[in-house]
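Example 4.3 (complexes with small molecules)
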Amino acid sequence: MDIKKLMAEAIQLSIEHKYKTKPNPVVGALLYASGKIVSSGAHEYFGGPHAEVNCIEKVDPDIKKGELTLFCTLEPCNHTGKTPPCTEKIISSGIKKIVIGVVDPNPLVSGQGIKKLKDAGIDVTVGVLEEEIKSSNEFYFFKHENKRPFVTIKIAQTLDNYAADINGKPIKITSEKSNQDVHNTRALHDVIVTGGNTLRNDDPTMNVRVDFNVNQPKRILLSSEINADFKLNFFKDEHFQIIDDADLKKVIQIIYEQNFNSILVEAGPKLVESFLKDDLCDRFISYQSPNRLGDEGISWSSVLNIIEKNRFNLTSSYTIDRDIKRVFRND
Ligand code: AOF
Ligand code: ZN
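Answer. The structure with zinc ion bound is encoded below.
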């Protein structure tokens, strides 16, 4: 039995659902007996049944339970959340052997699922392809380890570093393909944060428009509610929240308390600069078009100075059509 290969299969099952499970982790499970995989399952959507349950329920009842080995990427839960504890399902199914990829960092689970399974006499192995599982759940592990969500800032700029025209009105900066890439990036996040100026100037919807199923991120406006014009596109559906607090650390804490793992900031230079000055940015993504505004405009230049001066490292740089996408990490 090649346990790494089987765990890699379980990871593969899990990541198919990465746009729908968040802010829950992606989890995959499979059952192995007599040299082959006899059942598989995944956590498919937020609030839905867990991977182990989906996997166990599909297995042929004629297979002898004592022969089964259960592989799961994440430690099975031992608490009642939106669904009953997976440990109980595993124990009552008669499975005697289980291989777990990584311990669940969620304090409601962490170690307790493993203990419960061991106490029930199940042979438990822990720690297979841990790094792969952590990286496929990067924001989930980050949130639990740092007690706050992961923050990404995204900007778009012309070759001469402008974000908007001199009156703050939006200009077409990047190509359609880059815009689609932004939607894919939004789709991976739990929360999109923006400011009142962006809302007034651009009237953006700030939702995810892609041709696959996603769990739409919550859109958060940082503003005093009194100024909000509810006719704007941002308020078209109920996935929004307004936070009226100038202290960005508190804003992040409020978002953390709602159990979100990741925040994407899409805002104007002022708000972006505040996040950077307060050292509240883990990743900075810039899309740069090859075109110049050529005129006076509103610039990102002081923001870009902060990126260069602080501890940000360029981690990737590639072209999308004629634009350049650069990703910096604050390590
Ligand atoms: C598992 N298997 O497939 C997943 C687990 O609200 P609930 O009931 O969906 O519980 C969510 C928590 O359960 C989540 O934060 C994480 O700790 C664990 N996720 N556990 O045994 C799974 N998705
Ligand atoms: Zn569970």
